[in-house]
């Protein structure tokens, strides 16, 4: 598939000494997500056609992710545990049920429902927030599902193929919000 050249409004990369502004106020993040919904989908389309190697884009996202993570403490937030329904696979269910001292069948009955979204074969928690959220922390952190362990998934390879999730999580996770905004600032002029 041929890549589309970026539009003429492409900004030069930011200088290394530029100070990254970090937003952590969840109310502002949610409001901004609503206000910028069309812009975020447009930027997603831009990235899908942007003339850059997948690995190069991954490198930029990974760098931004590291920079943002140094400035945000997830344990002070926990919004993902309040707003997102992670998909649990059989390994997650077995690990959590063992840790809780109950059978996988009992765990499913008490805490899970079949994920009725089209893209999943797994289970999701039967309530929001997560039943194991205490304050902003997971009460079973060492047992948490793989989807929780890897959230917000910005350190994974092939970022360009996971952009729908990024746009969806933009209004939920301060890390996703800030990385996506920084990525816009580096690659795109709006």
Please tell me about this protein's structure.
There is one protein chain. This protein has helices at residues 26-35, 37-49, 54-69, 79-83, 90-100, 104-111, 146-150, 163-169, 174-187, and strands spanning 112-114, 123-125, 133-134, 137-138. With 190 residues, it is mainly alpha-helical. The chain folds into 2 domains: 26-79 and 152-187, no CATH class; 85-150, no CATH class. The chain has a two-stranded antiparallel ribbon with strand order 1-2. Helix 3 (54-69) crosses helix 9 (174-187) and helix 5 packs across helix 6 (104-111). The radius of gyration is 18 Å and the shape is globular.
The class by helix and strand makeup works out as mainly alpha
CA radius of gyration: 18 Å
Summarize the main sheet: 2 strands, antiparallel
Global shape:
globular
Overall mean pLDDT score?
89
Q: Low-confidence parts, pLDDT < 50 over ≥5 residues?
A: 1-17
- Bin the helical content: 40-55%
Order of strands across the biggest sheet? 1-2
Number of domains: 2
Q: How large a portion of the residues is in β-strands, by DSSP E?
A: 5-15%
**Topology order in helix (H) and strand (E) letters:** HHHHHHEEEEHHH
- Find the count of extended strands (DSSP E, 2+ residues): 4
Number of helices: 9
- N-to-C terminal Cα separation, in Å? 26 Å
């Amino acid at each position: 598939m041929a890549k589309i050249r970026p539009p003429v409004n492409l900004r030069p990369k930011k200088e290394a000494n530029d100070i990254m502004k970090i937003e952590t106020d969840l109310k502002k993040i949610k409001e901004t997500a609503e206000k910028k919904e069309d812009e975020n989908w447009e930027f997603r389309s831009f990235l899908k056609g942007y003339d850059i190697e997948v690995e190069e884009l991954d490198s930029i996202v990974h760098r931004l992710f590291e920079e943002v993570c140094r400035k945000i403490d997830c344990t002070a937030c926990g919004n993902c545990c309040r707003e997102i329904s992670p998909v649990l696979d059989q390994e997650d269910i077995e690990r959590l049920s063992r840790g809780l001292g109950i059978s996988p069948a009992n765990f499913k009955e008490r805490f899970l429902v079949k994920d009725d979204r089209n893209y999943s074969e797994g289970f999701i928690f039967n309530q929001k927030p997560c039943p194991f959220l205490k304050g902003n922390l997971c009460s079973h952190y060492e047992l948490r599902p793989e989807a929780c362990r890897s959230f917000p998934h910005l350190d994974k390879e092939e970022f360009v193929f996971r952009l729908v999730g990024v746009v969806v999580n933009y209004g939920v996770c301060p890390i996703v919000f800030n990385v996506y905004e920084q990525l816009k600032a580096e690659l795109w002029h709006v």
